[in-house]
Structure formats: structure tokens, C-alpha cells
Queue: 4 jobs
Job 1
Amino acid sequence: MSLVELKVPDIGGHENVDIIAVEIKVGDTVALDDTLITLETDKATMDVPADAAGVIKEVKVKVGDKISEGGVIAVVEAAGAAEAPKAAAPAAEAPKAATPAPQAAQFAGSADAEYDVVVLGGGPGGYSAAFAAADEGLKVALIEQYSTLGGVCLNVGCIPSKALLHNAAVIDEVKHLAANGIKFNEPEIDINGLRGYKEKVIAKLTGGLAGMAKARKVDIIRGNGQFVGANHIEVALTESAQYEQATQTGEKKTVAFKNAIIAVGSRVVKLPFIPEDPRIVDSTGALELRQVPERMLIIGGGIIGLEMGTVYSTLGARLDVVEMMDGLMQGADRDLEKVWEKMNAHRFDNIMTGTKTVAVEAKEDGIYVTFEGEKAPKEPQRYDLVLVAAGRAPNGKLCSAEKAGVAVTERGFIEVDKQQRTNVPHIYAIGDVVGQPMLAHKAVHEAHVAAENCAGHKAYFDARVIPGVAYTDPEVAWVGVTEEIAKRDGIKITKSVFPWAASGRAIANGRDEGFTKLIFDAETGLIIGGGIVGTHAGDMIGEICLAIEMGCDAVDIGSTIHPHPTLGESIGMAAEVANGTCTDLPPQKKA
Ligand code: FAD
């Protein structure tokens, strides 16, 4: 082990360059090529990578300092030539491949209107970017091809699925009350009424967005926008009665922009061997609740499939699920997922992990599906409904971004830097189209960064972590470094767990199957991750996110007074476990 200075390499002759982000702190373990700091010159931002791996002993710079080639950034206790583990889970998995930049098209036509900012796509990313830019005093247009704003999230994603899941949770909750001496009759389910409720929820939210756009004087242009040059988008105007259905009117409008924000989102992945049949649906089709099947197959054991499966099962369907990976709900630690699986075993006839769907045939009496792999039944299985939830693909190739000179990867992602800038400095991209995780809260955060940069501020996407939640019953929520990530990346951690079997509130609720887990960096003692399984886990994970962002340790969290009796208390108590004494649990064994 030796101390090594990490210095600024050749940065093209730039001197006294602004440091706009410092990614390391004392105690972090850095690998070769991990980003240490980000610099900003007049022309570009650049990340400075580590040229030695090891543990950071001293950080010599801070945000706002200026630095030149050879300037010392930090001192590291070098771990030799071997690559050291990463300090933390990546916040956003932005695609990094250097995609060649296309030549922008020359647009010689004239524009119908000019804007400071044009946002392409009206999803949570797009409308948040447009509203934030308007709040900065900029003249903004928002182009959306469908009838309502809100994108996938409000129209066919987060919100309608939660409207249905809420009803399913109430039905299930009422059943649990039988054990407490309170019995209800079997619910009478009017599927049209339930669908109507979901539509009302969507209409309330999307209507609210239209009102907020008007209040901010954001021009909504209804149509499909395609770049025709580096400063112009041509919009083929559309008429649209509902989301995901639009017809072009034949009219066109060209808008000129100083800055553009691409927020075109993602679409459902279609599997090539699956025939067209009304009994085979994607998530949008499943949300339409056209029927309650007797036997339903979910292809893909991720969050979207399992959430929709929960709804259909509560309404009366028997479920099978097939997943190529070796477990459901990938991303969450297995101990969290196991609690969900145990509580939900009654919904499933067959959980086929490590198994592939190889053929799907539509016959008169049902959809016949053939599987291959670890848990594949020998014979094709018959289903009344098949939900294909095999992932989502980015829409980067569907807006002629190349005509603006914007590089799009082979898979359709648009690469951006920490300011959400594409390779064309006045064009930004946000949301699902820039990479995983494809989540609304990531899109909104990126939107604010892009809008602030359009307004001339220097803003960066510097979130340490992005939480994930499965809104199943029980809910499963996780953030930052999981035990799986720690194992994969060789991060030394300590963990503390508070079982809800000791939570007064969870017991009073009759739902004490869950637990709360905190994960700390073994060397610094700072919290770097956490997971919760149990009712309302998704509502509680934000506290762990905040603790990570603020660099808290177990004493900070354990000394924070949480209200009693709440499920949120379990976070404080898990921290007390880490501190060695939790008076709501039996005494811990002394080492
Ligand atoms: P999108 O929401 O995809 O919006 C993009 C918009 O751009 C669309 O309205 C589209 O019509 C428009 N557009 C595209 N191209 C053009 C063009 N050329 N011209 C004009 N308009 C165009 N995320 C969560 O965080 N929590 C959840 O609980 C959750 N649940 C989900 C449940 C389901 C069933 C699904 C499918 C998704 C869920 N998601 C959830 C994911 C979430 O919906 C997305 O991450 C989010 O909507 C992405 O926002 P976005 O702004 O990037 O794009």
C-alpha cells in the first residue's frame, strides 16, 4: 500500500478550469477510471477519471476551485494494479458508448413560431421541463402527439396502475379483517365501474396539467414532432381522442428553437413470435380491464407484470408467471422479494423462473404457450389472457434526432452528460430515452436540470441514488447499494435489520410480515443503501434516500425522533440496531 496523488491529466491546454462537481470524499474506494471530479471549460464539461485505484485519504479540491493540468485532486492509498471496488451504486445507468455524431441537416425553410425552449414529448419528463423552463421566464412550446399530457406515467403507467392497485389492496385488506372478527360479504365487482374510476383519476391529473400549462403560458402543440435541422422541429399536427391513438390532420407547423429538450420516452417491447390477438395484451391493454380471465400468464417477472398480476388476481384470475432470470423482481435484494413471494404464493399456480417462452399460439379456446427451461411444464399451457411485460424500448430513433446532429445509440438511447446535454450543446435529453432506470421520478429530476441549464444556470444531475418501488402487496422498496450490488462490486458493508414483528404499528395493522434494512459503508459508517418490504414501503423509502443524500450515519438516523406508532419508526429502529441497542428488540449479542 502506498500513497499516490491523483492529478489532472492533459486537458487540451485549458488552464484554471472550473471544478463543477467533486464525486469523491475521504474514505471512498475508487476503481481505475472512476470519475473524481467534473470540469467545465467554455466549450464542454469533462469528467476526470482516477488513474490509480484505492481508498481516498485526502481530497484537495472543492466545487468552485479552479485547476489546471497536473493539479492534485486527491491522495489515494493505492490498492496496486488490481481494480478496486466502486464506492457506490451508479445513480443512473446512462448509456456511455461513444456513438458517432451525425451531420445535422441544413434547414432552409421558415418557422411558424420561435421559442427559447421547445420540449418534444409531454410525459413527466417533458411537462416538468416545459413548466420549469416557463417558471424561469422562458418562452416555451411543448409538443405532444396525443390528446393529453402526462405521457406513459399518467395515462397508461404509474397512475392508472396505482388506481387499480389501490382498489385491489382494499379488497385484500377487507379479507384480512375476517381474522379480527369482522366479516364482509364477497365483493361484487363491477368492472365497468372500476374502469370508470381509473379513467376519472387519469382525467383529473391530465386535466390539471393542461390547466397548469395554460397558467404558465406554455404553448401546447398537438402533433408528432420530427427534427428537420439543428434549430427546427416540424410538427405533423394530430387529432387524438385518447392516449396512444392519433391521426394526422395533414397540417404541418415548423417551430424554431434556441434550446430543445428531447423527452420522447419509451414504448413497450414487442416479442416477435407473439401473434396479434385481443387475449394477448401489453401493460396498456391490461390497464383497460377488458375482461377478468380465469387463467392468466404474465410474461416477464418485473415490477410492471407483478403489479398488474396483483390486480387481476384480486379480481379473480389464477396467475402463472414466466421469467428468464433466476428470480422475480430483479433489482431488489432476495430477502425482500422472498417476503413478497411468500405472501403472494396463493395467487400463483406456477412461478417459472429461469424459463423462456418459446411459442405462443392463439386458438379458439385460449392462448397456448410453450416454455423451455428450469421450470417449464412439458406440455403447452392454455391461458385466457397473456400479459406481455418484457420491458420497454427507448424512442430515440423515432424523432429524427440525427437531423439535428444528435447521436442516438443502436438501441435508441440518447447519450447525455451530467447537465443532460446531448452531443449538440443546445439540445438536451431526459427521461426514459436517456437510460435506465426508466422511472418517472428520474425523468422529472432530469427535466429540472435540463430546464435550468436552458435558462443559463449551471445545473447537474448529481443525485447519488434513485429509489425503486414495486407497489405490490406488500410493497417492496429499495435504494442505493443493495446486498447484491455490494457482493457483485466487492463493497464492504454492514447491515442492520428491524423486523416488523416488533413494530407496534405493523402488529396493530395486522401486517407485521415485513422488515426494514439499512446498509452502511463498513469503512466510513455512512448509509449507502436500504430496503423495506411491507405495507407503505414505497412511502417510506424517501427517508433513506434523504439520509444517503445527506451523508448520514446510523447515529444521525437513530437519534432522529420518529413518531410513534408508525411504520416509519422502523427506519430509526433499524439504525438503533446498527448502533448496538434497540430497546424494542431483545438485547443484541455482544461480539
Ligand atoms: P413518457 O412518459 O414515455 O412520455 C413521452 C411522451 O412523448 C409520450 O406522451 C409520447 O406520446 C410523446 N412523444 C414521443 N415521441 C414524440 C414525437 N415525435 N412527437 C410528439 N410527441 C412524442 N415509473 C415510476 O416511477 N413509478 C411507477 O409506479 C411506474 N409505473 C409504471 C407502470 C406501467 C404500467 C408503465 C408502463 C410504466 C410505469 N412507470 C413507472 C414508468 C414511467 O411511466 C416512465 O418512466 C415515465 O413515464 C417516463 O417519462 P418520460 O417523460 O421519459 O416519457
Job 2
Amino acid sequence: MTQSHVAVVAFPFSSHAGALFSLARAMSSLAPSSHFSFLSTKQSLASLSSQQLLSNISLVPISDGVTSPDHVPSHIEAIELFLKSFKDSLREGLKAAELAQGCKVRCIVSDLFVWLTADVADEMAIKWVPVRTGAPLDLYARLHADLIREVIGVGDEAIRSYGDKLLSFLPCLSSHRAIDIPKGINTGDLNFIYYMICDRMARRLLDSDVLVSNTIQGLDPILDSYFQDKFPNYFPVGPFYLFNSSQNEPPNDTYGCLSWLDQHDQATVAYVSLGTIAFILPSELASLAKGLEASNVPFLWSLKEEAQNLLPSGFIDRMNETGKGKIVPWTPQISVLKHPAVGAFVSHCGWNSVLESIVGGVPLVCRPFFGDQTINARSISFVWKFGVSMDEEGFTQKGVVRAFDVVFNREEGEKMRNKVHELQEMVIASVGENGSSRENLKRLLKNVCGC
Ligand code: U2F
């Protein structure tokens, strides 16, 4: 008999739903007598459904808010439409889940990006458990948005005049500079949908005494203390995906990335991926391609087909003919980063990629674009010291060659490798027997399922 019925609500864009689904699966395997209804849009559920599910987890589609089947919205419009109809869609989805299980939902776990879930949970007089899937330090910055605006000011000029001074007025960001502050706090169009979401979610979170985070206790001890003080029920239970037994199954390697890597020596290949929503300009993409070609490092590049069309003419053919590089639309990234041939990861520093790089023991070459990525890049290169950052101008041919020289050939690169191996050990131990993430997950389950 089902002891408790828990709804888990995803933000159905970029890698958010995948990360939350990993958490839902982890919870379902540790609490076999509870049922977990995972709610997301049809399209986002389809991207997850190839993964094998336990019998105590079910997928519940909710509306994407698109009213005409002929209308294909842009990425930004799709988010706007989804959020506009979200509360009604969620109410309907929850009713459907309760009907299917014959059992009331006792608690809603949701991505913090869909903070509006809190209102629906309040209406139903049940608990809301928000989950931060991205970097927790970014959330810390957003919780201090008003103070940042007050001390530094608003606009690019304010950032420039603050210069390279460290943000000593914010204890958890005292190794970061004004330029590392995520856009949408005191720069950029504050009405842009992503920035608006981040601002609202942080404000709504202040009403909660619970926070679940895709991070590991000990990765940032000062931040741990901050969140522990702020949220009596704080659960750092990352990396979510490491709890899934499916990560030990053979990966879906449609493009033969792993066999290509097998042909290379240990730590000699660069892996390149700029995440699921790239904002790179064609001119910068071309500079990255030139840098990869000019360096003596073989590379595997995950690049969507539409972006491949923007590469310099003849580039893909040359790379294929010489065997210097392999360019594919998708890779089994977690397995790629664990492959011994991979010696560097050129990344936009999305939080999932950062965690996967640590688990793989691979130093990063950082080129952040938006969101938490700027803060992550600074933590990686300056605090944790397992990577290098590209200069402010982004990818240049020289910059890529220089970064590879540091990571692959210099003593500094060797130090980064040692540093990432230390973190790797800590992170892997956290999900093992008596590890902090595993113990926190058990505490979380008591909180959400009461068991
Ligand atoms: C947004 O991040 P992204 O989705 O752009 O990037 P990541 O957080 O790094 O997640 C990408 C995921 O996609 C997977 C990869 C990651 O789990 O393993 N992947 C893959 O399997 N194969 C590929 O060829 C390419 C990617 C946002 F932009 C970030 O700033 C946030 O930190 C992040 C989390 O909230 O969401």
C-alpha cells in the first residue's frame, strides 16, 4: 500500500527537468512504499521517458500553455506561455495524479524555477519543498540582490567602476568580483524572463523553511553554514544523478563518441560542450573552431546541427579527414567525462556540467555566458582552482591555444588535475554509504514522505 503520495514538479526547459527527474528517481528508490508523480510538459517528459522507471514513480503530463498546435513558439515565448498558464495546468495535473493513484498528494517538491507551485501548495494546505537545481552560490547572490544594488549600483558603468575589488560585503562571495555577479541582479534587462524568474524565485523562497540543493556539503563550507542558518530544513543532496543506478548501465552512444575516445591516450583529448541553450555568436563560434584547429589537442565537440552549419567552411571535413576532431550533435556526456582519454572540458559552466566534470576528474576551460555560469567560472578558476577561464572577450584562437597549453602541458594544469581529483573523491564519497548527500536524502525523505 502507498504510504504517501508526493508530487514532483519540473521546470520543463534546458537541463532542469532532467536534474529534477534524477532526484525523483533517487527518492523513489529510497522510499519504495511512497509514490512519486512527476509532472512536466509532454515534450519534456518524452525526453526523459527512455529511462527505466521503478513502479512507484509515474509521469504526469501538464499543459505547455500553447493554445494552437500550429504555433511553434521561440524558446523565450515558450517559457512565457508555460508560466502564464502554469497554476491552472498544475492544479489539473495534480487532480489527474490523485485520481490515477487513488490517493491525495501530501507534499509538492518543485524546481524553484516554478516558484508559483508554492501558491498551489498553499491553496491545498500542503507542504512545498523547493529544489535548487543550479548553482547554490548563484541563489545566494539573488537572495542578496537588493544589497548588491545598494552597494555596487545598477548598470554596466557601476560594475566597471567597482573594478576588480572583491565583494567583501558578502561573506560567501568574498572571492568574487562585481563582474562575476549573475546578470539580472544589477545588469541586463531586469524584465527579461530568465532574470524575472530568478528574482521572483529568490523572493518566494524567503517564505520557506525548506531548501533542497543539487550540491555537496563541504564543496563550499561558508555557503553550507549560510543555508543551514537560513533554512532549518536544508538538504544538500547532490549530485542528484549519482544516485541513479542507470548511470552504471551502458550509455546511449549513437555517434560512437566512446569508441572514438578509446583510440586516444590518457588525458590527451579536450571535450567541448556549451550546454543545452547556447547563446554564442557565430563569430565567437568560429574563433573557438580556429582555436581547436590551431591547437595540437584532439577534441570531441557536442554541437547541435543548426550550430554546426555556422562553422567555418570546410572545418568539419578537415577535422574528419585528419581525425583531429569529432563533431556530433549529442554525446553521453557523463560517460565522456569519465573516459580516461578526456583531459579537459571546454564548458559554459552550467551547474550540471560542473558537477559532472568533478565526478569525471576533468579540469575545466571556462567560457561562461549567462545565469549562474559567471559565478561558477570564478569559483572554478579562483576558489576551487581546477580550471582556467577565458578572458572577458570570450573564445579567441590564441586564448583557446593558450588555455590548452596550461591545462595539458604546464605544472599549473597538473595542479588543477590534482585539485579536481580531491574534489572528485569528496563528491563520490558523499553519495556512498554514510556519505553526507545520502544521509541528507534520507532526512529529506522523512520530511517529504514522513517515512
Ligand atoms: C542551464 O544549463 P544547461 O542545461 O545549458 O547546462 P548544464 O547544467 O551543464 O546541463 C547540461 C546537461 O546536458 C547533458 C549534460 C548535462 O547534464 O550531461 N548533455 C549531454 O548529456 N550531452 C551533450 O552532448 C550535452 C549536454 C543553465 F544554462 C545553467 O546556467 C544552469 O546551471 C543549469 C542548471 O540549472 O541550467
Job 3
Amino acid sequence: MSTDIMKNKQIIEEILEVFPDKAKKDRKRHYEVMEEDNKLDCSKCAIKSNIKSRPGVMTIRGCAYAGSKGVVWGPIKDMVHISHGPIGCGQYSWGTRRNYANGSLGVDNFTAMQVSSDFQETDIVFGGDKKLEVICREIKEMFPLAKGISIQSECPVGLIGDDIEAVAKKMSKELGIPIVPVRCEGFRGVSQSLGHHIANDAIRDFIMGRAELKECGPYDVNIIGDYNIGGDAWASRILLEEMGLRVIAQWSGDGTINEVMTAHKAKLNLIHCFRSMNYMCEVMEEEYGIPSLEYNFFGPTKTIESLRTIAAYFDETIKENCEKVIAKYKGEMDAVIAKYRPRLEGKKVMLLIGGLRARHTIGAYEDLGMEIVATGYEFAHKDDYLKTIPELKQATILMDDPGAYELEELAQKLDIDLMGAGVKEKYVYHKMGIPFRQMHSWDYSGPYHGFDGFKIFARDMDMAISSPVWKLLKAPDKVGVMA
Ligand code: CFM
């Protein structure tokens, strides 16, 4: 066994040592160290995932409401999404995901607004259904161009047994627009992942297939599971269109309810975030016979590979166009790599991101010569881990739902040069003197998808690592001053 593998196994042991025996045993099952390069070793599929977080361990996961309201439904821009329940959930999830959308705010685009039913004690005691009716009427009056409403349940709604389905049905009839009740109370499931599933099911039951396209064509595709974070879906769509494909729906970044209603007319579903939207692809395949294809638009290597896989599904014209698109951007991509690779070569990266990007962004880092020494997910399932293992090099640590303590220890023991995770983690790493990039919201940057996105990705990673600020500060623990 190579020394690196042994060293990393030892590091995990040491970190878990502080836990009581039972917790230690449990957390250990959420770690694997890769024994060979890029190999799917099925014994490694044993890594535990999608189960309850260990009580007492500070998980960085979110909840079902986050998965439904924040992720799947929130980006549908011409609907008003009600955060139904106490104000906190709406307030704290307001605008933080940076899912961009075109349109006039408050007129035909409501993504950057936060509408909450602001539950008070009386609503908990007497129920919030009456209030919900009033809110629906007010929305119709204030935003006449809103094409629909979704009711995103927060925990108390489920606990007190409100009948949001009945309200939705009644108000939909009264107001003449679709009103969708979504049972995404935060306590459901073990993470935001069940929220994705519940949100997908609500789309299936209330929206999918409810409208027809005027004209259909042989090159009609849907972009599924791109939420347009910092403009990601726009940077992706442009490549598909240059190739000659017609994108009839974007789910759900910068998407409209009509796109969701007519998406069943596509010839092919292109799915980027498998974790959050695979359910819809399955449903569309079963009900409408639409096949789906997974793709990865992070970094030129994966983008080129994906463009060719997509083109292979179509005729010679598209295949030829695909090569032209690749040739058009290749020079630009080579120049980006020539500029940044010498500055980033060999830098060690650790990632801990949601349910997709912990594997999808690896190629982009590797295009810049950077090395992934540890990666992991908050809420991935077994199928995600099976897809991740072949992307990893020998001795890389793979982890599931690690708590804040485990991550901080790992970062120090692996002596990483860059950490990629979320805003909850960010400032701790800055205090430790470790460069950090937010890999959920792209900090205040983006897009990172496609060729246009890679230019920004490379610049941002360089900016984080090469900033002169790291030479000016010493982490508080190194200078003996308590922060
Ligand atoms: Fe999909 Fe996402 Fe992700 Fe995700 Fe998320 Fe996100 Fe994510 Mo944050 S839908 S699984 S629930 S790619 S919000 S845009 S970055 S954890 S890795």
C-alpha cells in the first residue's frame, strides 16, 4: 500500500479519535481513501450516504424546504413562491443562491423577491389556511403578470396539519392560475435531497405536460438541472445553440412555468445536476419516451467531451457543428490554461459541496494542473458516489456529510492550498489562513459553466490562491492570539 494511502487513512483515524466509540465507528463508514487511480472499485461503494446526520456532529447540510423552495422551484421566474410559515426560513434563504433571471423584477420576474406568510403564534394555534387564501389574492392583485403561485411549506405547516392542498385547489379556481402546494417541510428526510424529490413530484403532478408547443423540431432539447447560478445556464445554452440545437426549456434557472409545461415535447433531456432533477428525467422517459443524457460543462476537457456526447445523439450536421464550436473556443481555452496553469500547478484542493459539484468540478481543477486531495458531498446518494470514484486519483479522500470539525482538521492535516465549500464554512478557513472559494454561489462571481465560465473559474481560483493577503496575515492560533 502506498505511503500516501496509509497516511490519509491514519489522518482520518486521528480526526475521529475525539469522538465516543459509537460515533467514531459511525462516522468512519462515511470515509474512503482511494486505493487506485480512477478505478471503480465496488468495495468502495460501501461508503455510507443519504442517512441521518450523527446527532451532536455539526452537519453542514440543509433541509427539504431549502431543496424545494431554494433549489428547484425558486428559480422559476414568473411564479411567486410563498415561503409558507415563520419568517426566518424565507429571510435566511433570500437571494443567497444567486440564480439569475432576465425580466423586470416584480413585474414578470419574482426570483429576487421573498414572499412569506410570516406565521405568528395565532397562526400556529388556529391554522394558517385563511391567511394563505388572503396572500394568494393579494399576490394576484399586486402581481397581475405572475403566471402561477407555489406554496412552499415550512416545518410548522406540516406539524399543525394545515390543508394547503385544499387552499391551493380553491384559490387556483378562484384566481385562474396554477397554484401548487408543495409539502417540503424542513423536517422531511435527512437533507435537502428529499426536498428536490418532493419538488420534482409536485412539478410532475401539477405542471408537467399542461401546455403544448406551437412548433416542434428535430433538435429540440431541454436543459435540466441548471439553476443559472451566476449565469451558468446562459453560458451553457449558448454552446448548445451554436451547435444547432434548440433549447425549448431551462429547468429551472431563468425558467418560466410555460417552459416547464411544454418541456415534454423535447427530443432529448440534457441533465446537468443529476442529483436534484433525475426524478423528472425518469418521469419524462416513462411518460413521454424522452431519453436523457448527463453532461458536465465544468472545464474545457469535460465540456468538449460532453459536447461530443451530446452531438453523437444527433445527425451529421450537428456533429459537424459541434466540431466547429470546439475549434472556435479551443484556442481561447488553451490561452487560459497557458496563463493560469503555471501559477496553479500542483496546488492541493479540498472540496465539500452539495450533491453534484464535488465530482463535476474535478476536471476543471485538473485542467489547471490542480490536484484534488479530498472531496465529498453533503447529501449525495450511492449513485453519485459510484460516479465519483472513477474521477479520483490514488489516495484521494472521499467523504460523506462531514461535520465542521472533521473538515477543519482535514484541511490542516492535508495542508491544502484551496478549500471549496459554502458560505457557512468560508470565514473559518480565512481565519485559518487558507484560501477559499464558495462553490455553491461562486462567491460574487460566475458563471463557471461552459467555455465562457472556465475563463472566470480559472481567474477566480488564481485570485484566491495568489492573493498577497495570505502573506500579510498569520492565523490566530499561529500567533498565540485568541480570535
Ligand atoms: Fe445540484 Fe446545484 Fe449541486 Fe444542488 Fe445545492 Fe447548488 Fe450544490 Mo448549493 S442543485 S446538487 S441542492 S448542482 S444549492 S446549484 S451548489 S448544494 S452541488
Job 4
Amino acid sequence: DIQRRQEWSDAKFGVFVHWGISSIPAGVWAGRHIAGLAEWIQFKAKIPLSEYGDLAKSFNPTGFNARDWVRMASEAGAKYFVYTATHHDGFAMFHSEASAYNVVDATPFGRDPLAEIAQACAEHEIMLGIYYSQTIDWEDPDAVGPQCNDWDFDPAQGDFHRYWRRKAVPQLREILSNYGDLGLLWFDMPSGIPEECAHEAFDLVRELQPGAVINSRLGGGADADYNSMDDNYFNNVLPARYWETAATTNDSWAYSQRAAGWKPVAGLCETLAYTVSRGGNLLLNAGPDATGSMPQQTLDQFGGIGAWMDRAAPG
Ligand code: JFZ
């Protein structure tokens, strides 16, 4: 549907937020720096689920203020905001009835950040998008497939369709029903999803959120409204379809104590102009820490982009 795509395409610039209980270890486990993306620490360090899940008991981000996050996005000139409702660790960062492994029921925090973010986005007229990891889930013994949890579970015993019925579909229904109008669904890691599951997810989004676009990382031969390019990838030809590049602001997505390679503001502005001038959207990431605060570097980056936009504005 042209209108749905056009509204999303017109938004041009979005803020991606990677946040979860992986923000507590933030790249360090048992005193060791675990190489790679901080949100992959459970997989990279083969942390037993019992230990990783215990992180939830100390997740209490009292500094979290959805309005601050959304204001940061809005002041930077972003028009949409994408939140990791459930990343690959399978821990729901929203209130889920389908799984007790969620931020309201399993942490002392007990608040639903997604509800607060949805409210703040509505106040700022920012389009809300939701990231959902539909194939990888390291908490679920049945979520078998590439890069599944084979250190706690025996993949031979798992049945993807059981995971899909028990957890993925119910959680997708919750996300699609409980947070008002969504602008987009951001699926991730297409490999391994059975075709019928991908089609079911697509149809579910259409049924419950007819105004939302769907990115191309659903997989399983399902249709998509726009093309998610490879991360940090800026193509130099004009793609035929609506497209978006998700980009990091340092060398991780989720908050990392050892984050390096913070990108300078000038380069980020150039990237944004480059993307938009080629008809694409830029989804630029921020990784808040486990207290709910944005790192100072992130505030400086988005603040710098906003200042650049103000300077660039005529008059
Ligand atoms: C995925 C996730 O595994 C990662 O943690 C993060 O959420 C990122 C936004 O998405 O990583 C990918 C997925 C696809 C590509 C690269 C990294 N790709 O197609 O190049």
C-alpha cells in the first residue's frame, strides 16, 4: 500500500534503541571482555540460561525516562523510533502474558518501558516501530535454527513450531494490540524461519496494524514493504525499492562498557545526507545503559545532528 510506505519513507530518519538485560554485563562477563556485539554476550560466552536469566533480578533502571529518549530523537530531527521489544536473548522488554521472562514480571523495575515509550512517541508525534527477534530466542528450547541456544538445550529435541505457537505468535499479538498505532515492525535474522510462519507473521501485522510497514528481515519468502540493507551498509546505486540502513554509532548496538569507535558527528551528518539524498531512510542506533541513561557520547552525537539540522535550516 503506497500510503503506508510513503508515510514511513517520508520520516527519513529514525532512532533505533537496543536495550535489554544484556545492557547489565555490557560486554564484560566474569571480568573478561567478550568480543563482538554486546547484545550477543549470552551466545558468545555460552552463558548458562540460569545465570543469564538471573540478570533480570538486578535490572532496575530507575533513570529510565521515555520522554528523555524520545525528546533526544525529536531534537535530533528524527521522525521515528524503533525499540527492541525482544532481542535474541528472548527477554521481553515489554509486559508479556505469553512469557514470564519479561521486564514487568521478572525484574524489580516492574514497569513496562514500551508503554511509556509509546506514550512519549504519541506526545512528540514520533512514529513508533518495534523490533522483534522472530527466529533467534536463546531462552526457548524450541527456538531451534541457526545460532540457537545449543549450550543449554539439545536442538534435536526442539520444535520451532512449538516455539512459534507458544511464544512468538502470542507476543507478536501483544505487541500489535497493546501499544496503539505502530509505524513499522522490524524483524531480524531471516534465516531458518519456516515459510508458513513468516507468512503468518506478515498477515498478522497486516490484520492488526494495517498502517505499519514490514522490513525485509522477516525471511521465509514473505513479502516486505521495504528493504533493510546490511547493517552499516550504504549502497552507491539507487535500489528499486524503499530502503533503510540501520547503523551503529559505535562498534556495538546494545550498550557496551568497552564501546569503541564512536562515530564523529560530522560523519553521521554526512551519512544521513547521503542516505536521504538516495531515497533511503537512516535508522541510527543508541544503546542506553542498564540505569536507563543514554551514554554521554550518544547524547553528544544526536545533539550534534540536531544542531547541524538547525544550522542547515533556511532563515
Ligand atoms: C542483527 C542482530 O543480530 C544485531 O544484534 C542487531 O540487532 C542488528 C541490528 O541486527 O545483526 C545483523 C543482521 C543482519 C546483518 C548484519 C547484522 N546483515 O544483513 O548484514
